[in-house]
Amino acid sequence: MAVEELVGVKEYGHYINGQWVPSESGHWFETKSPTTGEPLAKFPKGTKNDVLRAIDAAEAAFPAWKKTPPPRRGEILLRAAQIMRDRKQALGELVSSEMGKVIAEGKGDVQEAIDFLEYIAGEGRRMLGETTPSELPNKFCMTVRQPIGVVGCITPWNFPMAIPIWKIGAALITGNTIVFKPASLTPLCVATLAEIFEEAGLPAGVLNVVTGGGGTVGMEIVTNPRVKAISFTGGVPAGKEIYAAAAKELKSVELELGGKNPQIVLDDANLELALDGVLFGAFGTAGQRCTATSRLIIQEGVYDEFLDMLVKRVEALRIGDPLDPKVDVGPVVDQASGESIMSYIEIGKQEARLVTGGERLTGGEYERGFFIKPTIFETEHGTRISTEEIFGPVLSVIKVKDFDEAVRIANDVEYGLSSSIYTRDVNLAFRAVEELETGITYINAPTIGAEVHLPFGGTKHTGNGGREAGTVAIDEFTEIKTVFVDYSNRLQKAQIVDEK
Question: For the structural domain made of 3-257+463-482, what CATH number should be given?
Answer without folding.
Answer: 3.40.605.10
